[in-house]
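Help!! Second protein's tokens look totally different from the first
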Amino acid sequence: MVWFAAGLFLPAALVRAAVAQNRPRQMLEVRIENRQVVEPREAIRVTQGDVIELRWTSDEAVELHLHGYDIEFDVEPGEPASMVIQANATGRFPITSHGWGDGGHGHDALIFLEVYPN
């Protein structure tokens, strides 16, 4: 019985994994002004398995950190920076600054990435 049940669920898991790999990359512009995200105005919502590219612009230099995925990168003013994420972990993950151009350190969430299960 266990082997039979495993046989039913395993192919479904393989199909979901294959579908996730063939999903097109979603691109979203994220704009920071005066140390706040002004676009988009709400949390970034995706489904588990999605591949997303967040294209960041900022009016001052900032080091960003996507918690839970442990992605850190820098954004320089006037130079868009891309963060590509394979949304495997589900949950609500803050994206925070770990340093601004003039040395200011903020750790409050600028925006949240929400990954919903399939």
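Here's the second one for comparison:
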Amino acid sequence: MLLEIITPDKTIYSGEVDLIQLPGLEGSFEILDQHASLISVLKKGMIKIRDNSNKDSFFEINGGVVEVLHNKVLVLAE
């Protein structure tokens, strides 16, 4: 699935991933390939992504919003 993480200043990640773990208001949750459509608010915490070569990367955010639609995940983060 395609992931884009965008801040007010720049795009900090854009690429194909296998897994995304996000800090939701009620706890962390994961998004996998072909996930159902979703919009959720994010709190301060870490985003974990696993790319297609099984490498994990982490990004710290101060909150934001995530949208999942048609196997594309868009994170608007602070």
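Reply: Different proteins will give different token patterns, so don't panic. The beta strands are 2-6, 11-24, 27-32, 38-51, 56-69, 72-77.
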